Amino acid sequence: MAALNFQKKGFEVKVYEKASEFRRFGGPIQFASNALSTIKAVDDTLFDKVMERFTFTATRTCGIKDGLRATGFSMEEPTMDKPDWFVKFDIMKQAADMYSLPYTGVIDRPDLQEVLLEEIRARDPDAVVNGCHIVSYENHDLNGKAGAGGVSVTLSSGAVEKADVLVGADGIWSAVRAQMYGEEIKKSTPDKLRRQGCHYSGYTVFAGETVVNVGDFFDAGYKVYIGPKRYFVTSDVGNGRMQWYAFFALPPGTKRAPSGWGGVRDLGQPEQGLVDYIKSLHQGWSEEIHYVLDHTPDEAVEQRDLYDRPPEVLRSWSKGGVTLLGDACHPMMPNLGQGGCQAIEDAFVLGEELAQVQTTADLPDALQAYYRKRVLRVSAVQGLSRMASDLIINAFDTPWSPRDSLGTSIQSVATTMLRPFLQYVIFPLQFLFLYSFFPTGGMGNLPKELEKDWKQRHYATSMAAFEKAQREGQTVRPSFFSKDDGNQLAA
């Protein structure tokens, strides 16, 4: 996204990609309303292509369900006698409507990669260099200002390239950040609680994908099942597919499944009975969860430990003619689905700052301005993302109900008492804040038109997928975790 935005601003761009070739791997990535507005502000054609491949989730019911009591994929409003739904996120759609923005949803990473490459290569066929990554860089001074004289970049091929600016968009284990902050790439402490300046979040996540026509498939977009010390998430991700995540508070390195990290299944085949293992960790939980797991083959399950970083409010992620973008500078927990969204916002703001520069000597100042404009917002989103995980696992429990004894702890009572506060205060403020970055301005009737067009396609493709799965069985796709060790760098 950054490369395309820079091209449209008139810059010559080179993207160095570690992978020798682009292959279709990776699962869905969520784009919330703020990201969709930013994509359209960058390029209308790109936005149209994304929408052709998009699956809306926020057009339907999303929210938190009772992980122990939910039954029958009910869509009824939550009551004391029928507490299937704990909180519904109606505000996701309402906030988008308030700003007249497209609704939150998902797109497959391979589809996104394909359309981005099309647009970038249409402007410069040689803009993307595969099989080559950044080894190191050097800022050059001009009149005593670091980086004002450009940046030399040493590549894995041994070549040295010169650029005015280097943007490290190389993910959480960033090589560019390692040099900037004096880190050692991917080096972990013996207990694995810290890795290249990142902290283990306390959670490992199993993720799987299945094609299954659950009772609320066309009515619910995104569901979070809460319960004691864990939570389970399901989301419609298009073409009849449902992706699920199971979060557990376990020590780092508690491996039971391939990580899929970087598109490589690094532990070979998953353990026999992996789905049964995950089911055992949800003993006594909702039949809805077990129904989804029962329709997931072991081969479709992967695992990764979750790391993030504290916000960089005390040191800039720009130094001289070098800056960072996305997970390279502000990795965050996945609970709000804002990791990719904030990277897209970064790309937009950075392009705006660079476009105002009159001489190359002013580029370091523009990179610092970019940092200052982004750091407070991304720090808040990082904090909200981490808080969501900690609250769900450590503070929330099975809500109290007078009809049974499933939730009787103090935490259960507190969880129940928090419901109206979450429904009418916390979640509205959260989504209004997240969607408040929309450089296009309101889009009038376009969001409704996009939803109408998508709904017809979605029903047809989903039903076709259900019929195929029933006839031929489940198809296990390539690794769907995002690639963490690529070196996608714009120089």
Overview of this protein structure:
The protein is α+β, with helices and mostly antiparallel strands and 491 residues long. The chain contains twelve helices and 20 strands. The strands form four sheets. Strands 4, 5, 12, 13, 14, 15, 16 and 17 form an eight-stranded mixed sheet that branches. The protein has a six-stranded mixed sheet with strand order 7-1-20-11-19-18, with helices on both faces. It has a three-stranded antiparallel sheet with strand order 2-6-3. Helix 4 packs parallel to helix 11 and helix 9 packs antiparallel against helix 10. The longest helix has 33 residues.
Main sheet: strands, sense, barrel: 8 strands, mixed
Number of helices: 12
Number of strands: 20
Strand content: 15-25%
Give the overall pLDDT as a whole number.
90
Instruction: Outline the low-pLDDT stretches.
Output: 260-268, 482-491
Estimated radius of gyration:
23 Å
Helix percent reads 25-40%
**Category by helix and strand content:** alpha+beta
N→C terminal distance: 14 Å
The coarse silhouette is globular
What features would you highlight for this structure?
491 residues, eight-stranded mixed beta sheet, six-stranded mixed beta sheet, 12 helices
